[in-house]
Amino acid sequence: MAGFRSLARQVRDPRCDLALRRYSLRKCLERFAPYGHRATWDHLCSRAGFGPEDRSPDPARLVAALDELEEARAVWLAYEVEFAERRKKEKHDGLRRPGSVDDWHRLTWGGFGVAWCDDPAVHPREPLAEVLRRLIAALEREPGSGCPVCGGERLAWKYDLDHEPSAGPVCTDCGILVPRPVLTPEALADARRARLLVSA
Questions:
Q1: Residue 167 in contact with residue 155, Cβ under 8 Å?
Q2: Cβ contacts of residue 35 below 8 Å, gap of 6+?
Q3: What are the φ/ψ torsions at residue 140 (nearest 5 degrees)?
Q4: What is the pLDDT of residue 99?
Q5: Angle, to 10 degrees, between the axis of helix 59-92 and the axis of helix 37-48?
Q6: For position 88, what pLDDT does the model report?
Q7: For residues 29 and 128, is the Cβ–Cβ distance under 8 A?
Q8: Distance between CA atoms of residues 177 and 166, nearest Å
Q9: What is the CA radius of gyration of the chain?
């Protein structure tokens, strides 16, 4: 099974068939897809300027999409290194029980679904790397009341998400499943009430 870097080389290789280059970019999303596979693909296609179903996109556009994905992956991998170092130090200092951020992080190891978007067509418009930087910054500060990515205050509790956890606060503006550790108990309660109002 090819890794992310070898797939990325195929996307960039002009000697490869265009269909293989597109396929290799899609396969990269099996290794790293912050919004989930379908939503990340939709995001990359819209930002690079080709359609999700376009079977023969401009190779330069494929490479532009890959560049954005690689930059975001570098941001996330750096965070994971820092996270692992922090946990190692905490264990050394006798703190064996992980906190809520650690529980959330365990579900997103490798970067899949870090900012899960259950609706593939609704996701942040900003570059992936910027979205991840905002999310990481939120994980490293005190919990707040809104979406760490777009700043939106309209959160609604959604059930039956195609993700783990299968329920949680979703930003109605940018579509991400907001990690619970970045929200105050009051914000989580408000999101639950918003869900009740929607279903009533």
A1: no
A2: 43, 113, 115, 116, 117, 123, 176
A3: -100, 5
A4: 62
A5: 130
A6: 80
A7: no
A8: 10
A9: 18
Tokens of 75: 């941001």
CA dihedral 121, 122, 126, 129 (to 10 degrees): -80
| pLDDT in the model for residue 199 | 45
Answer yes or no: are the C-beta atoms of 135 and 148 closer than 8 Å: yes
Residues lower than pLDDT 70 in the chain: 1, 95-101, 196-200
**Beta-sheet pairing, 168-171 with 155-158:** antiparallel
Q: What is the DSSP letter of 189?
A: H
The amino acid present at 63, given as its one-letter code, is V
For 149-188, what is each residue's pLDDT tens digit? 999 999 999 999 998 889 999 999 999 999 999 999 999 9
What is the rounded average pLDDT for all residues in the chain? 90
186 contact partners, CB below 8 Å, separation of at least 6: 145
Task: Report DSSP state, residue 164.
Answer: S
Structure tokens at 196: 């009740």
Q: Is the dihedral of CA 154, 156, 161, 166 positive or negative?
A: positive
Hey, what amino acid is at 79?
A: Y
Paired tokens of 79: 């965070």
Length of the chain as a residue count: 200
Taking alpha carbons only, the member of 14, 16, 10, 3 closest to residue 60 is 14
